[in-house]
Specification:
The protein has 11 helices and no strands. With about 280 residues, it is mainly α. α1 packs across α6, α5 packs across α6 and α5 crosses α7.
Length: about 280
């Protein structure tokens, strides 16, 4: 009886205990690596660095429309969660698993891969890591995101995000984007100009308005409809944005002309050059 009980315990440990130990060691290693990066340069230090940049834009100088549109499209629970949206991660993982099974079973590559990252996680990824994806990096990212959310306010997170994000064509941050695409300051941007930036957040290279205007325009229309679904864009503005740029397409009056070659504004120092070394 005792021998049988011992075998049962041994089998239980082999099935459940060893994998659990491996997972715990994995999490501890990710925690230690994340803590190293956080102590090397925490979010307050990042704030001090970015606020010294000549193109830094304070939160209050960004139009409310720009912030509302980006939050609705990128992370509609931004003001409520604490850095990580578990339900979003679950549904994104579910969607990606189904897509992977379709590829294996039918060779169907339709549908895109969804990410479950919040705006806070995107900010941490851009600040602390390169673009090479791995599960270990993702766990580190989550730890740093949780610490960041406890260290600064949501407004400060949004401020950093808007000054750090890439808007395509070599433009980092909302001020460079507003100057490059519209020749204006961030606080002067119109509703149409704020909507123009949404495709650039999703895929700044693949949806470059100067190279693939049709794809850019189609994606913009999709996002306008999403804003209507979230009641962020309402009538009569909704109708105007749906129809304003559909005639005589493509039209130079809604896609800004690219600066002439040799006249582009090249930033002396952009945020990506300040990224802390990733592990």
């Amino acid at each position: 009886m005792v021998l049988s009980m011992s075998k049962t315990i041994l089998i239980f440990l082999l099935i459940f205990g060893i994998p659990l130990v491996v997972v715990c060691l994995y999490l501890l290693a990710a925690l230690a690596a994340a803590l190293f990066l956080w102590r090397k340069r925490n979010i307050r230090q990042w704030q001090n660095i970015l606020r010294e940049e000549p193109d830094f834009t304070p939160y209050e100088d960004i139009t409310p429309d720009t912030i509302r549109f980006i939050v609705a499209i990128e992370d509609y629970k931004f003001w409520k969660h604490r850095g990580i949206n578990l339900s979003n991660i679950y549904y994104s993982a579910k969607h990606n698993i189904k897509r992977y099974l379709r590829i294996i079973s039918r060779g169907d590559h339709s549908g895109d891969v969804r990410g479950g990252s919040t705006i806070s996680q995107q900010l941490v990824k851009n600040m602390y890591f390169n673009y090479r994806k791995s599960y270990f990096r993702k766990v580190m990212e989550m730890f740093i995101t949780l610490w960041m959310e406890r260290s600064i306010s949501k407004e400060e997170i949004m401020e950093l995000y808007m000054n750090f994000v890439f808007f395509g064509n070599g433009q980092y941050g909302i001020r460079q984007a507003a100057r490059y695409y519209f020749d204006c300051a961030p606080e002067e941007m119109t509703v149409s100009q704020s909507l123009f930036l949404l495709p650039l957040l999703f895929a700044p290279t693949m949806l470059n308005p100067y190279r693939v205007p049709e794809s850019f325009f189609n994606y913009r229309q999709i996002k306008v409809n999403e804003l209507a679904k979230y009641s962020v864009l309402q009538e009569p503005e909704l109708t105007r944005q749906r129809t304003e740029y559909t005639s005589d397409y493509p039209a130079d009056n809604w896609i800004p002309r690219a600066p002439a070659k040799g006249t582009e504004t090249i930033p002396v120092c952009h945020p990506r050059s300040l990224t802390a070394p990733a592990l």
